Predict the 3D structure of the following.
Amino acid sequence: MFPVPTSLSPSRVESFLSCPMQFRFASIERIAEPPQIHMTRGSLVHRALELLFTHPADARTAEVAVQALDAAIVEYRSDPDFVDLRLTDAQADVLFADALDLVHKYLQMEDPRAVRDIGLELRLEAGVGDLTLRGIIDRLDLDADGNLVVVDYKTGRAPGANFEQGKMTGVHFYSFLCQALFGRIPSKIRLMYLKTGEVIEATPSAQSVRFVTTRTAAVLKAVEKSCVSGSFQPRVSTLCGSCSFKQWCPAFGGNPDLAAVEAPLVFGSAVAA
Ligand code: SF4
């Protein structure tokens, strides 16, 4: 009933596991969602840090970091992810001030002049059976011993104290991709939560990389089954509160078959309102 995807990213795998119905809307039917302010803020800060790291190490001062954010803001002023938010000038100022706050917080977490980065916004892909796994690494560093370290900036909330290693599975994709492409497993995967200054590190192993392959193959099988049968089950959770597709979700009395036609109209009018 639906074409089976030939490539998946870590976030799409996680999205299928969180809610197959939402995965159908976003990843199988590819219905474009309206931008959300927290996502635009995250992308803006990622871009500012990327621009900061295009400077030689000794030039990455706080002043240059702020200039990098200014340059990113200029880029985003014409980006649909910003334009379609339709913010007032005052709301846009708040967004940019929040982004500046995150850049300052980043500078309190590490000194970018001391970082030995070897790659920025790396788009990596590797095959698992018939499937291509794709991922973007925010930053790839070398540690003091010359080992690879994958760095992932997070602009959302840090997970609570009950955060389980199992939830780190998504990040182990990066070790899988590094091994497939560079022939080496990174020594660390570092998640930097800019809002709170927290750092969570995972130490990949041959076993965790193998687990990614096995788990992805299992998820793909489940995706295939859903595509062939047309059955994508809704999974109600706290995510429903921010789900763009709630009105077409059968768990909330909606008809999912209408989303492909109606959602672009609804999202378009929401954007134009
Ligand atoms: S409203 Fe909830 S259950 Fe329905 S598609 Fe969205 S996330 Fe899934």
Notes: The pocket of iron/sulfur cluster is lined by residues 19, 21-22, 234-236, 239-240, 243, 245-246, 249, 251-252 (CB under 6 Å). The longest strand covers residues 117-128.
